[in-house]
Here is the input.
Amino acid sequence: MALDSKIPQGPIASKWADYKNKINLVNPANKRNIDVIIVGTGLAGGSAAATLAELGYNVKAFCFQDSPRRAHSIAAQGGINAAKNYQGDGDSVHRLFYDTVKGGDYRAREANVHRLAEVSANIIDQCVAQGVPLAREYGGLLDNRSFGGTLVSRTFYAKGQTGQQLLLGAYSAMNRQIGRGKIKMYNRHEMLDLVVVDGKARGIIARNLVTGEIQRHSAHAVVIASGGYGNVFFLSTNAMGSNVTAAWKIHKKGAYFANPCYTQIHPTCIPVSGDHQSKLTLMSESLRNDGRIWVPKKIEDVQAIREGRLKPTQIAEEDRDYYLERRYPSFGNLVPRDVASRAAKERCDAGYGVNKTGEAVYLDFASAIERYGKEQARIKHLDENDSQLVQKLGKEVIANKYGNLFQMYEKIVDDNPYETPMMIYPAVHYTMGGIWVDYNLMTTVEGCYSIGEANFSDHGANRLGASALMQGLADGYFVLPYTIGDYLSKDIRTGEISTDLPEFEEAEKNVRSQIERLSNNNGTHSVDYFHKKLGKIMWDKVGMARNAKGLTEAMDEIAALREEFYKDVKVPGDINGFNQELEKALRVADFLELGELFAKDALHRNESCGGHFREEYQTEEGEAQRDDKNFAYVAAWEYKGNPREAELHKEDLTFENVKLVQRSYK
Here is the structure.
């Protein structure tokens, strides 16, 4: 079945404006009679809740954290993209659009990406008006820095805590509406099922995580803004609570799941230190502006470093392999994330990894410290040949730009990154795949929307750095409020949706049944035991590099693990109260289904593109080799009772404004 993406007709530059001119509207007096449920209160959900409530809708917002401020959006460090061209370096809406399509390895929908680029500038204005403390230059203008996959500086930032500051802006807008009574906030509640009445999403079943109470909540539309599914790998940069449950529940009720194999491996993470770890820590991609990535050229130097006989600072410049600068001279250390990640893996697989596990490379700021130090010495009319002074001045500049990131690294690793290079290695970070949505951000379930990282729409097979915050806020502030209004205009006479309908009763019964099944299991292994086993299968066979043999084995192993989970998982405690093991069990049950679909999707896509790298499909130089003739489509999977039986639906991708070429950053 071919999917209808509902893309408006006409030139790409005017599609969004023409669309807004022709949609149906809900007048202010009718908006107060319409309810909207929003699941997730990160940047996408928080901005959507605030905007819809400001427009007059009654919003019910749900988050499993104790406050919307705890959403994982706070972990985004480096910045947010926008086509403002403050630097005067040639940026434009078209260039942001082009970079995003190219960065996604030509696997994104053109119309959505262009809309994202168009509204990006509005996001910055909105956030400045809210008081978000974005960095400024000496002259007072907002500052910008570069990120991977671009040749311009378009990333706005607040030191290394951009996500947190943007989320506080959205949260303040939410708080205003909570105070007015337009947003009813349900903290510590988790959505466990979608309720569909006569083919339309009309509510959810949620569990109060403090009391254990199962609740029915109705609305005229449901919006899923619950983030990504990177924790299917167990170890990832995601918060430990991040999960796929809300997205997976709507998938099982009819929402197609698109491109699950498009998962981003971020190149700049603190390496794994052992089996004791429960999550990984991201070092912002912004560090690649000034940090140079390298490994020793000589294998004997690598051995000496691992054994502690040699320090990286003792290795001469000519004995260092700045491999990204060598392989990709045009973009250097600022190649896109998928390219940088595979390059690091290639060096480590070849034996040049610099930590005890052999899975780490250096991110070195020595050159930047010296460069900035000399520049500051000249500005202040001091002696630029005084090496001690230059070091002091250079470190001050780096501290101003990245200070909290350096502090975080030192606290975790117990190493001073001002004095010795950071060690980094790729780790699972962001998921480009997600729930399939059309141009309106509606899923294949009428009245059910998905926004932010929870949907698949804007990044293709690889997300450029600083585009996650851009998409989340674009969807919440500037896209969904228009598109959902067009849909809700048909509901002005519907009236309140009753939670006594049989569909609510059936959904609640299913939720209770699964909870009782898990709690009465009396198994012998903890939830984490199964989650770690799933993560190992995923990383080893569905990770940075994949092949048909490994993917086939992964599907079988995950199916067997899922069967073992239901037979042997132990969930202690009472189901009628606070029970974190039960919370985890319900989430891992969904990961155990998603993992199999993930591997199935990766197995069916016989090409390499972006974050999906099949070993059988690569160029002689080891780069990703796409197959545009056979795979220039979105793979949207329909649930059929078992992940292995999922049915494939295709949305063909047409490229009228960007020429399909082999991606090159050389």
